[in-house]
Amino acid sequence: MSIVVNSVTKRFGDFVALDNVNLEVRDGSLTALLGPSGSGKSTLLRVIAGLEQPDTGTVVMNGQDVTRVPVQDRGVGFCFQHYAAFKHMTVRDNVAFGLKIRKRPKAEIEKRVRELLELVHLEGFIDRYPGQLSGGQRQRMALARALAVEPKVLLLDEPFGALDAKVREELRAWLRRLHDEVHVTTIFVTHDQEEAMDVAEQIVVMNEGRIEQAGAPRELYEHPKTEFVMSFVGPVNRLGYEFVRPHDLEIGHVPKQGAIEAMIERIVHLGFEVRVELSPAEGDRLWAQLTRQQAEELELAENQIVYVRPARKKVFDENGPRTEELLPA
Amino acid sequence: MAARGIADSRINVVQGSRRARLTMRTIGIGYLLLLLVIPVITVFIKAFEDGAANAWETITSPEGMHAFWLTLVMVVVSVPLNTIFGVVCAIVLVRHKFRGKALINSLIDLPFAISPVVVGLALMLVFNQRDGWFGPWLADHGIRVLFSPIGMIFATVFVSMPFVVREVVPVLQEIGDDQEQAARTLGANGWQTFWRITLPSIRWGVTYGVVLSTARALGEFGAVAVVSGKISGVTETLPLYVSKQYETFNVSGAYAAAVLLALLGLATLFAMNLIERGGRKRDQAITNTGHTPGTGLSRGEETR
């Protein structure tokens, strides 16, 4: 189901959570709402779900204005950051909840519950209570519960936010596979750019209640339209109006045109990646990202004086955003 | 071993030396004995001082039995009223935002703050048939509030109003509204959400509030004394009956009725204990069996 959000504004007292937001989500896509806390991403998700009413603007699903349709009639599946498991019910009853509300026949409910638990790999936990599950299992149960009613849209609010790094990574991969299997239009909220890049087909970057940019992960990374997007979707060095990704910093031992002199302060070995922290003769500190092989070839050492120049940089000035690339010398 | 040492020292910080511990225990238990246990036991002894016959007669006299039944009626009517009101009020206070919420919140404690006698007098002013606000109108329609069980129920409801609200509000705050929202997204309407999600989550708060309300309704004296007119066999509850027997020099009879009243109270507490023990045991089985090894629960995970 396609979703269109038209000029939605939402205030909480004096705080403007959403400021004239417009968004389009294609049927069957997997979209991430990415932004720092307080950027309005969760509010936007809750407006789409019907858990919040926008002050102005409309939400359209499959060409139908649903702005005034109450949440229980919207046919959305929603997953909460803290799972919102029904603690007094077993896993079976949790997953069956939506089906029981819809008064489906018992045998059908049982069959569907078993199918879904198989899908989320919780077959063996059907008679457990949420208190007996780990965080990752609870979130998978919550997903099964949301999927049980065959929602046309699946909305996930920081679904992996409360989990530790390893479980989070597993669930990400699992969510991507699930989306390939089920093909339900999915929107998830995250503040983790890596998670957004890893899982989503489309990323919507939000800041201060507004959408900064929407597009494919690669497009956002390569062609950010604003400084905010540039610095939020990946690491960045700032040189005045210019922004350089750490992997676009070239390090050499001889002065070249456009290169600045800097001293190596620290070298951090992270397996394949090597981080070089640099202190230039003037200006802010920089860091460069090299492969292990590059670092070895250059024979870098701490306290060494080197010359760095951006192979590729982004400029955000009055002439608009543009990329400047160094021609190979 | 090191961990053990830390645990031991922590116990010492809280409980102090052996002597300090014993002193604290003596003070605590002595206080309870002096103010609670000894007086109650004396009542039981006194009740049978003039022989069981008199005690039995006082209780089984028509006035005594009437007082007993009227007390039960007070409980059976006022407790459900306060339970329904209390739950609705708690939900409104916790889940809704509106102007004047703080005011309502403090108004709820009013029955605790003012003396029951004052409550009784206030009801007299409102409902007396000569110049009360509603009294004359109600009298014209054949309804008598004062000196009848209706007024006594008003008084009882008033004084026991805050218990359920005060027990349920913190529980609602603690569980948050995530589960209710989840139920809504799954298609449940407000009513279904309340019965299937909210009520099961707050049941212990409600139970405890009900028990406290019941105990208060059983024992209410001041407010009921003022509005009832204390008419024997008509508007006399057990506490009023006890007081009247005492005033008319049937001392052992008064104690016998008091024992009956105390037993009703004890039965309430006992019932509460039974329900709680059974229920909590089941809940513990649900939440505290820990996790089975290998299910992936690890440090840093949210375990709400």
What does this structure look like?
The complex is a heterodimer of chains A (329) and B (304). Chain A has 329 residues and is α+β, with helices and mostly antiparallel strands. Chain A has nine helices and 19 strands. In chain A, β7, α5 and β8 (185-190) form a beta-alpha-beta unit. Chain A is elongated, with a radius of gyration of 24 Å. The mean pLDDT of chain A is 91. By secondary structure, chain B is mainly α. Chain B has two domains: 1-47; 51-303, MetI-like (MetI-like fold, Orthogonal Bundle). In chain B, 77% of the residues lie in helices and 0% in strands. Chain B has helices spanning 2-15, 18-47, 52-60, 62-95, 101-107, 110-113, 116-127, 135-140, 149-159, 162-175, 178-185, 190-219, 222-228, 238-247, 251-287. In chain B, α4 crosses α14, α11 (178-185) runs antiparallel to α12 and α14 runs antiparallel to α15 (251-287). Chain B is globular and about 65 Å long. The A-B interface holds A 49, 51, 70-74, 76-78, 80, 82-88, 97-98, 101-102, 129, 131-137, 142, 145-146, 148-149, 162-164, 166-167 and B 178-179, 181-189, 192, 196-197, 200-201, 286-292, 295-304.
Search tags:
heterodimer; A: 329 residues; 6-stranded mixed beta sheet; 9 helices; elongated; B: 304 residues; mainly alpha; MetI-like fold; 2 domains; globular; disordered N terminus; disordered C terminus
Average per-residue pLDDT of chain A, rounded, comes to 91
Which strands sit side by side, in order, in the main sheet of chain A?
A: 6-7-8-3-9-10
Shape of chain B: globular
Largest interface: A-B, 40 and 33 residues
Task: Note the topology.
The complex is a heterodimer of chains A (329) and B (304).
Chain A: E1 3-12, E2 15-25, E3 30-34, H1 41-49, E4 56-61, E5 64-65, E6 76-79, H2 91-101, H3 106-119, H4 135-148, E7 153-157, H5 165-182, E8 185-190, H6 193-199, E9 202-207, E10 210-215, H7 217-222, H8 227-232, E11 237-239, E12 242-244, E13 249-252, E14 260-270, E15 273-280, E16 286-291, H9 292-298, E17 305-310, E18 312-317, E19 320-325
Parallel strand pairs in A: 3-8, 3-9, 6-7, 7-8
Antiparallel strand pairs in A: 1-2, 1-4, 4-5, 9-10, 11-12, 12-18, 13-17, 14-15, 14-17, 15-16, 18-19
Chain B: H1 2-15, H2 18-47, H3 52-60, H4 62-95, H5 101-107, H6 110-113, H7 116-127, H8 135-140, H9 149-159, H10 162-175, H11 178-185, H12 190-219, H13 222-228, H14 238-247, H15 251-287
Helix pairs in contact in B: 2-15, 3-15, 4-9, 4-10, 4-12, 4-14, 7-9, 7-13, 9-13, 10-12, 11-12, 12-15, 14-15
